[in-house]
Amino acid sequence: MREAFTTSQKQDGTQGQATILVIDDEKGMRDACCQTLTKDGYRTETAVDGDSGLQKIRDVKPALILVDLKMPGMNGMELLERIRDIDPNIVSVVITGYATIESAVEAMKRNAYDFLAKPFTPDQLRIVIKRGLERRRLAVDSARLRREKEMMKENFVTLVSHQLRSPLASVKQYFGVIIGGFTGEVGTEQKEMIEKASKYIDDLLQIINDWLDMSRIESGEITEGFEPVALAPVLSETLELLKPLAEAKKVTIKLNLRDDVPMVQGDQEVLKQAFANLISNGIRYNREGGVVIVSVGEEVNDLVVEISDTGIGISKDNLHFIFDEFFRVKSKETRGVSGTGLGLPIAKRIIEAHNGSIKVVSEVGKGSTFCVYLPKTKVKQCE
Predict the structure, then answer these.
(1) pLDDT digits (tens, 9 = 90+) for 119-151
(2) In degrees, to the nearest 5, what angle opens at C-alpha 282 toward C-alphas 277 and 283?
(3) Residue 88: which pLDDT band, with cuts at 50, 70 and 90?
(4) Is the Cα torsion angle 218, 220, 225, 231 positive or negative in sign?
(5) Is the separation of the CB atoms in 74 and 50 below 8 Å?
(6) Mean pLDDT of 52-57
(7) Contact by Cβ (8 Å): 69, 53
(8) 174-179 contacts: CB < 8 A, separation 24 or more?
(9) Half-sphere exposure of 6 (CA within 13 A, CB side)
(10) Phi/psi at 107 (nearest 5 deg)?
């Protein structure tokens, strides 16, 4: 019975002729496999041992390899390791007359896809080959889609950076010129409309900046300049920047900090952004006359920054989603609070890029506490 994988298959097992390499020191086994596979429309190659098999892999780039475990010289287990280094998408199927559970498990650890115990029938071989090539097709398609996604993302970042942010910033500047009266007198109604439009542009620019920050974090760019960082000035400066927001919301912010806080390894400005996102949330979702308390402690190898607020709190149903991109809690209490839904995801990714973690506990009507764990460095602060 002929399978669908014929001369219409590619090397990856999708379209065009798929190449199968048989590596076995037994001539009878090589010939039998090739005879069955050639009948089914596959292109076949053979090798008598691991060394010649590796050379064939580099020369013909097969879609699937049948590997004998017991061969002179390089054995099948070592060969599987080498195949994975050459091309992890090559599907390897182990064939052996000494099949055991232990050898099967060991082969799978070395990226083998399946196991055929000798002797096997042509139909058993056909089934394994068909499944293996389908697995390769899916792996190749997945890799191609990942590459396409990355290219689209890079192109979109360029678009957002240069073709959206700059024009929006220019429009905002023009609005400022008009509201300032430099182009003539502006009526009250017109001024209010322009101020509203300017506020919408601010919101759009914030979304763009947050999205670009997210892309920069995901690319690993922020980890390139890590150095020992003292958290005390980071937190003090962050709270100073957020004072106007706290005053506008009539929220008190407090910092509880010891003098001998150990340092962490990271990027000072990026850490400021993470803590600014967390603390500003505590302010914006607080109640008038509420409090945000930032405390620093230690737990084994970590520094723990605790940010507690007396705000509206987060329900258990929503707590699992607050670090998802663009997720915002929708309720009558949050209706008037502006935001992009990226503040917490950005903070989480920044902390994780610093090999840390975030935990949160919250109760509706009573407030929330975010705990940031960052590994301590062995470098001590100067006296």
Answers:
(1) 899 999 999 999 999 999 998 888 888 888 777
(2) 95
(3) confident
(4) positive
(5) yes
(6) 92
(7) no
(8) 175/201
(9) 6
(10) -65, -40
